[in-house]
Amino acid sequence: MTAVDDLIRDIGAHYCIECGKCTTVCPIANANPDFAPRLIVVKAMAGIANVALEPDIWRCMTCETCSEMCPYNVLYSEFIKGLRAEAVSTGIVPVCSQHDLMQTMMRMMATPGLQQNRLGWVTPDLKIADKGEVFYFTGCLPQMSTIFRDQEDVNLLGIAQSAVAIFNRAGITPVVSNQEVCCGHDLNWTGDEVNFEKLMRINLDLIKNSGAAKVVFTCAECLRTFEIDYQDIAGDLDCELLHISEFVDDLVAEGKITFDGVEEKVTYHDPCRLGRHLGIYDAPRNVIGAIEGMDLIEMERTREKSACCGVSAWLTCDSIAKEMQLARMVEAVGTGSDKLITTCPKCQIHLRCAISEEMPIEREKADIPIEDFTILVANSIKTGGESHGK
Amino acid sequence: MEPKIVAFCCKWCSSAGADLAGTSRMKYPPNIRIIRVMCSGRIEPSYILRALELGADGVIVTGCHLGDCHYIAGNEQALKRVEMTTELLETMGIDPRRLRLEWISASEGARFASVMTDFVEEIKKLEPSPLGGV
Question: N or C terminus of chain A: which is more exposed, having fewer CB within 10 Å?
Fold first, then answer.
């Protein structure tokens, strides 16, 4: 039994009936006829060649559009993840955008004993603690905010500030830690299992020592990594993992926060990690619906059929990704909304990237302000106070 | 342990400056490992991080003086990138003094030697890199 054989068994590829639905819905296959998810599985099962060496395994965005359609629930993204780890173990080095900057940064964070300075965004009006019931996991927002500081209007630190402002407004002082490290999502999806586990151990120890019963995330990728990948390796965590939209949804239901009326039309982009990977579709919609006067207009491709932002784990930035991002922006403009709302900082970065440069269509067809869900919520909460969003 | 320092030098100015320092028999410490690139604008933030990750105690990026770039504005890109990387290092908990940007022209052999001597001395004052030996 080779590693690839194990993988085929684990993901349930033997149930594949070769219906080809995965290839029909695959956004990459639609743009590039040479790419076919089904073919990769079939090749692996036939044992024709070592599929871990195929370049195509690096082009998949692991957006799980295929899994959503698969009648036999073959876990395609897990298959790709496993193949990548296998490829790396044979010495293949993945080619990542930004010349591997993100992955290098994450590997460096796995070094024990680094005294980070990641809390520069905590303004004096925000109350945070070292120990407490609720842990707010900021993820890579401080680093990404530096790396993407040239992107206009990308207010990544505003996401973290808004999250803490929401907690404070609900009477909660969240734990925010200077020792927190990257969740390792991108290393996990580029086959670096060793450093991924190092990061995981640091984060899990940190959360355990904080005594938190709930961990809240503003990043869809971090949540997916904790919920699925950490628990796969480290067993069930004894704390509740929540996305900020779920947390706010509960607060609204308990009447702990109320919103000011805002006359605004917004549309919501489901990130693949939050939607298809974790099945969280309703919580953000409930919260937006609870804001008086705010009108949520759905795009054509929404919920399970949501379009992908084109890039995952900094692997797949190319002309196909750009086309997909632009198509998504055009769709958002088509709803006639004032803003596009998303819950994933990376979706925001990638979608903004498509409209930040020259584009093959007229600008007004694709240019719509993008705002993070957390900032939208913090700015709509009743009674004044500091506002951190734009 | 002697510190290891990676120096990125652009082909048109700084590495010519290094050559001049050498042919003029000027002395500077042997801790510097020069990597010649076509332009300082070629230096990606990830190259700097990678050098530190692999155990370098300091990284120095050198290029033509502003306005003198062989490719018109490559060094302006280098300036932006090094500023960004410095901020990133600070957030990550790596002493930003480990990264330096200097403009050294082809005629400044003496300046090349003195900048390198100065940088090595400054790095020697710091603790060994927390990433050393990774």
Answer: N
| Range with lowest mean pLDDT among A105-114, A138-147, A268-277 | A105-114
**A contacts of B46 (beta carbons < 8 Å):** 98-101, 104
Architecture of domain A258-380: 3-Layer(aba) Sandwich (3.40)
- Does the structure show a pLDDT above 90 at A262? no
What is the ipTM metric for this complex? 0.91
3-state secondary structure of B9: strand
CATH of the domain spanning A3-89: 1.10.1060.10
Q: Which CATH fold would you assign to the domain B5-125?
A: Rossmann fold (3.40.50)
Q: Are B19 and B28 in contact (CB under 8 A)?
A: no
* Residue B35 neighbours by CB under 8 Å, 6+ apart: B6, B7, B8, B9
Which chain A residues are within 8 Å of B51, Cβ to Cβ? Answer: none
Distances (CA, A) of A284 to A16, A135, B39: 34, 20, 47
Hey, is the C-beta of A115 within 8 angstroms of any chain B C-beta?
yes
Global model pTM greater than 0.95: no
d(CA A350, CA A384): 32
Distance between CA atoms of residues A135 and A237, nearest Å: 14
What DSSP string describes B20-81? Answer: HHHHTT----TTEEEEEES-GGG--HHHHHHHHHTT-SEEEEEEPPTT--TTSSHHHHHHHH
Alpha-carbon torsion, ordered A32, A34, A39, A41, to 10 deg: -60
Contact yes or no for B88 and A98 at CB 8 A:
no
Q: How far apart are CA A376 and CA A372, in angstroms?
A: 6
Dihedral (CA of A248, A253, A259, A265) sign? positive
Q: Where are the domains of chain B?
A: 5-125
Instruction: Give the tens place of pLDDT for each residue, A337-366.
Output: 999 999 999 999 999 999 988 888 999 999
